[in-house]
Amino acid sequence: MLKELVGALAEPVPIRFLVLRLLDKGFGFLSYKDKIRYGSVDRPHYGYGVHQAALLARKLGVPRISAIELGVAGGEGLLALERHAELARRDTGVEVATYGFDTGAGLPPPEDVRDVPYLFQAGDYAMDVDRLQRRLKKGSKLVLGNVAQTVEGFCERERPPPIGFVSLDLDLRSSTVAALRVFEADHRFFLPRVVCYVDDMVGGADAAYNEFTGALRAIHDFNEEHARMKIAPVTGLRHISKHLPQVWHEQIFVAHRFDHPDYGRPTEDPANTQLPLRDDGS
Asked: Which of helix, strand or coil describes residue 17?
């Protein structure tokens, strides 16, 4: 608890929220939505994506979905994704299967300057495969190999429940371009809108992330090549629902599948779609 307190005090967050966060970590009284909002769970960006996907699935009558981490590294993220899958299930009733894609041996060699070679080199972020496999729950699956090969035909081979959340953490533009081909599978393997978290896109001048390299360039290239699918940032997330402003709010995107048969299916409660004139008493 002391370590949590010291770390929290370094954040530019009102003290009442820090106290709420620390109390929830100790006693677990907040709702899942509020745990994400106040950051009292590990990797709240994963929680936000999985929770939103599960809520959409429930509205569409989909009982089971998938969450995918593209780029597992040591495995802490995939283990966190498992925990969020269980928390989302408890909150929504929607089951969440989890998958992690990685070479297992670290990053492949950068292909050109668009792969940001001043930050990433071959062999970075290698995995202890056996140790991670022992830690994973039965409902999770680790997909090992070069993502250019493992993503190809993945949906047809594995028949996962509809994919609702994807984390893109492959560092290199070339690997991210290859991984995004997962979206080219049939609509039946996806929710109509897939929440995405994009790592390696915010940082200081030393990292110098930009629209011409890395993950952002890969997303740009994907959008250029796909007229009826677009991966777009969610605008204004940090300003809604009383969220504490966090860096990850800038890293949430949605993959829109415009031709998905459920894309235009209404998901709003009709009670919230009317604005009758209020009686002013006159």
From this structure: helix
